[in-house]
Amino acid sequence: MTRLWVIVIFLATHLLQGCESLQWTQKVEDGEQFTRCTGQDVTFPWRYSLEEGDDVAGVSWSRQRQGGKEVNLASLFFLKFTPNQERISHVNESGIKVTSLTTDDTASYSISVRLGGGGGVERQTIHLLVAEKPETVSGSLEVVVAETRSNKSHDHGSTDQHQQLKCGQFVSLGSPPVSVMWEDPDGKLLPSSDYQDGFFILNLTEGRKGGNYYCLMNLSSTAVGCLSETSALRDKAMVGVLKSQTSTSSASMGGGTVAGIIIAVLIIVALVVVAVVFFLKFKRGKSYSPKEPESPGPDKETEEMLKALPSSV
Ligand SMILES: *[C@@H]1O[C@H](CO)[C@@H](O)[C@H](O)[C@H]1NC(C)=O
Ligand SMILES: *[C@@H]1O[C@H](CO)[C@@H](O)[C@H](O)[C@H]1NC(C)=O
Ligand SMILES: *[C@@H]1O[C@H](CO)[C@@H](O)[C@H](O)[C@H]1NC(C)=O
Ligand SMILES: *[C@@H]1O[C@H](CO)[C@@H](O)[C@H](O)[C@H]1NC(C)=O
């Protein structure tokens, strides 16, 4: 039945393209996107004009959520408007109004006008996004520094501390869900590392900068647009962070110093060895110098030593 109806609409719209006895006169385009916030109303201002002699057999309005079926919302036959859903009313010719919006009302809304005398169906669609504002426990953003120690580094005997900044606490992220960004002391924007239990988290790295960090929301995001102009959630929250730091850095400096001392000792030992060897050689060279002409002498000695070697091994 619905398939037949779809085929009828398809054929009708294609056959109609030539004659255009119906003209849409509203200001919005077919396929346009509307954005509203929860609790607000929306009006789809559809209007049309007909050529003389044409008439309309009936009008119907429908809604289709993403991935869902098309559902009839209301119809108009013989000048009688019949809503099939709550919160829907008829405005100005062929417009409809939906009041007290919820995020569930996010959908595509269409109007179909059936022309009299087998004239076919004309259709227009508007996509509606119903956004919801985010909410925090205190009504503003609050940011704290949290320290975390990992067990791993305890096994290694060092005190490896990780610092995190936590911003929140959110009761609801709104819709579409918001996230917070971070601004470091240089004014560079950083994304959050994580979201846990209502808090957005920024992991601070070892080589971090000291100074003021800010947690803030993107004021251009759709859900933030649903906050009142004076909402404290629109303001940045600030926290001071010390420069990368104390235990971890001094521990690594200590390691460096120890290594430096060891290297220095090794170098001194090496120099002493070289000096002693040089000294001995110099002494030996001096004592041999008178015998230098009698080169066969030492050679015989060496030969004897070499002969003696295998037996000793
Ligand atoms: C109905 O149309 C008139 C004229 O365009 C307009 O002034 C009025 O605001 C419309 N009413 C609604 C409820 O849209
Ligand atoms: C760290 O150690 C404590 C106690 O030894 C343990 O309860 C905790 O689960 C450990 N944490 C991690 C992340 O391993
Ligand atoms: C942030 O730090 C925590 C704890 O130190 C760690 O479990 C998590 O994986 C880190 N996240 C990122 C993105 O680095
Ligand atoms: C803020 O949101 C707008 C709209 O969603 C987006 O275009 C822009 O890139 C965002 N800015 C940042 C810094 O993420």
TrEMBL record:
Entry protein name: Ig-like domain-containing protein
PROSITE patterns: IG_LIKE, PROKAR_LIPOPROTEIN
Biased composition (Basic and acidic residues): 289-306
Region (Disordered): 286-313
InterPro entries, sorted: Ig-like_dom, Ig-like_dom_sf, Ig-like_fold
Signal peptide positions (record): 1-21
Superkingdom as given in the UniProt entry: Eukaryota
Domain Ig-like positions: 134-225
Gene3D superfamilies named in the record: Immunoglobulins
Keyword entries, A-Z: Membrane, Signal, Transmembrane, Transmembrane helix
KW Zinc (keyword) present: no
Residue intervals passing through the bilayer: 258-280
